[in-house]
Amino acid sequence: MKIALLCRNPDLYSHQRLVEAAKEKGHDIRIINHMRCYINITSTKPAIHYEGETLDGFDAVIPRIGASATFFGTAVLRQFEVMGVYPVNESVAISRSRDKLRSLQLLARKGVGLPPTVFAHRTGEPGDILDMLGGAPVIIKLLEGTQGVGVVMGETKTGAESIIQAFGGLHANILVQQFVAEANNEDIRCLVVGERVVAAMMRKGKEGDFRSNLHQGGSAKPIKITPKERSTAVSAAKVMGLNVCGVDLLRSNEGPVVMEVNSSPGLEGVEKATGIDVASKIIEFVENNARPNRTKTKGRG
């Protein structure tokens, strides 16, 4: 099988592991920097050009598109789809999951557990927002933030109101969420591959930090999740239309709630914490599902 791996940094652990796993199973895998591709948009013979050649003959494409490159990266991926190449995650699904507001609205519509959340742009009534969430403490997030950047805790009513007003002064889109104190600054990252949770780890923020992101100095350990947590993670992936993703959960008093669905989850933390070969499971999924012109979302937004 000939596989394209779309990524900008071939030296990242996740990308090296995917290449290793594919080669171990006898596949021809090529790393392609999607930001250096250019697309020939034509109804007769659509094509992608890269480093002076036309890309063709691929059976599947594994997109590893960073958040800052979502627009152009999904355009390149969409061109692969137009050419009939099987995408592990489709362009529509990636775009859907990258829009934090849209993803929360879709999850809420399908009844997936979420922390109470308010979306705002610029408001002169921060107190009303806090009242809707039952008061402080709250978590205030920039809509465009990633890896824990742009996430602030408002521990008191006065402090939270000041942060909301400050973000409003920057004309920023924000999400304000009820703080799940019972989670004890821990979250669960579930790796979903093909409607199965193949690995799960508990992440805990460093001392004094409520954020559990490993990029922010958090730690991780393997964990056995409950059937409800497993079904919540799988449901969240299905709602987004993602075949491979990381689903971040919190354990609340009302049950598991979804914080985020990541379409390009890192493999280093979960593989080292659990000892599970997630990369090989992704390649096995490709082997079992790659067919020409086979998509799930059918272009639906």
Description:
The protein is an alpha+beta fold. The protein folds into three domains: 2-88, Rossmann fold, CATH 3.40.50.20; 97-112 and 182-286, ATP-grasp fold, B domain (D-amino Acid Aminotransferase, Chain A, domain 1, 2-Layer Sandwich), CATH 3.30.470; 117-179, 2-Layer Sandwich (Dna Ligase, domain 1). The chain contains nine helices and 16 strands. It has helices at 13-24, 70-82, 91-98, 100-109, 126-132, 157-169, 227-240, 268-274, 278-289, and strands spanning 2-6, 28-32, 37-40, 47-50, 53-55, 60-63, 86-87, 117-120, 138-142, 151-154, 174-178, 186-193, 197-204, 219-222, 244-252, 255-262. Strands 14-13-12-15-16 form a five-stranded antiparallel sheet, sandwiched between helices. It has a four-stranded parallel sheet with strand order 2-1-6-7, sandwiched between helices. The mean pLDDT is 91.
Strand and helix map with partners:
Layout: E1 2-6, H1 13-24, E2 28-32, E3 37-40, E4 47-50, E5 53-55, E6 60-63, H2 70-82, E7 86-87, H3 91-98, H4 100-109, E8 117-120, H5 126-132, E9 138-142, E10 151-154, H6 157-169, E11 174-178, E12 186-193, E13 197-204, E14 219-222, H7 227-240, E15 244-252, E16 255-262, H8 268-274, H9 278-289
Provide keyphrases for this structure.
single chain, 301 residues, alpha+beta, Rossmann fold, D-amino Acid Aminotransferase, Chain A, domain 1, Dna Ligase, domain 1, 3 domains, four-stranded parallel beta sheet, 27% strand
